[in-house]
């Protein structure tokens, strides 16, 4: 069961590439790897704890009050995450801005609470929530890397906002900094749409290839009778 939950969360039902939920932060925050991964991990943490909490109280919540109570739990957790960002990574907190509080209204968080956590055990719900968030984080990381590389010629820019000024040396310059390279189409929202479209197309192609390969194994070529 656990392996199936992980596989569904990361690949088969990936929030960014299959369900296409929570697209606002995906498209806006994914201008580089650091921003995308940071918001993705924050979302994963909220989904992990909210999934477990909702599964633990699901039998005591009346059907007509489910959504308000679920949103209240999620909002409380997001407030904690918001305060932690402000206290320990203030520079990143300023960059991400309103998108940390907006985790409360992210479709994927409430959708998993309604569709999974309200019907399954605490362990399975925590696992589903966490790996749904990790699946989204992977999309944000790849999309952010693509946009940052094409748009700025760098990787891991802004890493010092997480690990302090000493981490600024960790930034990888694919194109030398003195060239002042910049490709605005990749950095701006149109680049996010194009990049996400390429990722969705790539996943679809991989799934079709895997399905065709599986069918060829299950159905060997028929040998004509003479």
UniProtKB/TrEMBL annotation:
<dbReference type="Pfam" id="PF02508">
    <property type="entry name" value="Rnf-Nqr"/>
</dbReference>
<keyword id="KW-0472">Membrane</keyword>
<keyword id="KW-1133">Transmembrane helix</keyword>
<feature type="transmembrane region" description="Helical">
    <location>
        <begin position="92"/>
        <end position="113"/>
    </location>
</feature>
<dbReference type="InterPro" id="IPR003667">
    <property type="entry name" value="NqrDE/RnfAE"/>
</dbReference>
<feature type="transmembrane region" description="Helical">
    <location>
        <begin position="41"/>
        <end position="61"/>
    </location>
</feature>
<comment type="subunit">
    <text>The complex is composed of six subunits: RnfA, RnfB, RnfC, RnfD, RnfE and RnfG.</text>
</comment>
<comment type="function">
    <text>Part of a membrane-bound complex that couples electron transfer with translocation of ions across the membrane.</text>
</comment>
<protein>
    <recommendedName>
        <fullName>Ion-translocating oxidoreductase complex subunit E</fullName>
        <ecNumber>7.-.-.-</ecNumber>
    </recommendedName>
</protein>
<feature type="transmembrane region" description="Helical">
    <location>
        <begin position="155"/>
        <end position="175"/>
    </location>
</feature>
<feature type="transmembrane region" description="Helical">
    <location>
        <begin position="181"/>
        <end position="201"/>
    </location>
</feature>
<comment type="similarity">
    <text>Belongs to the NqrDE/RnfAE family.</text>
</comment>
<keyword id="KW-0812">Transmembrane</keyword>
<keyword id="KW-0997">Cell inner membrane</keyword>
<dbReference type="InterPro" id="IPR010968">
    <property type="entry name" value="RnfE"/>
</dbReference>
<feature type="transmembrane region" description="Helical">
    <location>
        <begin position="67"/>
        <end position="85"/>
    </location>
</feature>
<keyword id="KW-1003">Cell membrane</keyword>
<feature type="transmembrane region" description="Helical">
    <location>
        <begin position="125"/>
        <end position="143"/>
    </location>
</feature>
<keyword id="KW-1278">Translocase</keyword>
<keyword id="KW-0813">Transport</keyword>
<keyword id="KW-0249">Electron transport</keyword>
